């Protein structure tokens, strides 16, 4: 099975062009093996790029643990680049079918193996039951700066990180919990991330983000992704951070999110779609051996 390794701000996945290759019979079983960074290709998961009756391509995205996710912002940029680079769509406006509907992307080639892509990420979902989060929302049905029982009692790192222990919850087609703090580097993400991800108040688990506001138009963030762990970037998460920052008065309508793998530009007016711009870059091509495709 031929594949392309790609990344968006170092959020890396193994991509299979199912216009040219048969789709793997069991992608849930394949994803953990092919994403293994020691025994496989390595990546945050597996993405299938398939024909679609309603768009230029369809994206199916599987996390490194094999669970299927509705949406991946960095991943969908790479899908749009691949669709253009492989001749499935023309450069410019490209529609991609995802688990949260058909998204419209603008693809501008930046070289033979890369593009800069702007994505209309869709409207944020703020109603607590639809995210979903099993907590009582505010009068508007939202969870903005809400108490978070998943954090448990205060720990010493709260002071070191300058943590505001309240969370703002947003769905961008997949669920996110956003926490603001003074120093994201002081957050023990490898320990606290999985605790929050799997807490019972999140019936479909949750993506977790800690955010340091550098200026009204710039933030620094670290992410624990549902099903993949610590990642170098999260496009839907950065979109959720943009929404959370504006709604809680911490940031303005347009921000640059500095993530460990680079930077993403987000814009949200307070209504309608969130727009995200960032890179999509091919790394290498390869062949996954026959008999190990599940």
Structural summary, described in words:
The termini are close together. The chain folds into two domains: 128 residues, Roll (Diaminopimelate Epimerase, Chain A, domain 1), CATH 3.10.310.10; 145 residues, Diaminopimelate Epimerase, Chain A, domain 1 (Roll). The model has no long low-confidence stretch (mean pLDDT 97). The protein is α+β, with helices and mostly antiparallel strands and 294 residues long. The radius of gyration is 18 Å and the shape is globular. An eight-stranded mixed β-barrel has the order 1-2-3-4-6-7-8-16.
- Order of helical and strand elements: EEHEEEHEEEHEEHEEEHEEE
- Biggest sheet, open or closed, and with what strands and sense? 8 strands, mixed, barrel
Average pLDDT = 97
Helix content: 10-25%
Assign the CATH superfamily of the largest domain: Diaminopimelate Epimerase, Chain A, domain 1
Strand content: 35-45%
Specify the structural class. alpha+beta
User: How many beta-strand segments?
Assistant: 16
Question: Keywords, please?
Answer:
294 residues; alpha+beta; Diaminopimelate Epimerase, Chain A, domain 1; 5 helices; 16 strands
Short description:
This protein is of the alpha+beta class. The protein contains 5 helices and 16 strands.
How are the SSEs ordered, and which strands pair?
Layout lengths: L1 E7 L2 E7 L9 H9 L9 E6 L6 E7 L4 E2 L3 H13 L6 E7 L2 E11 L2 E7 L35 H6 L5 E5 L3 E7 L7 H9 L9 E9 L2 E8 L3 E3 L3 H13 L6 E6 L2 E6 L7 E13 L7
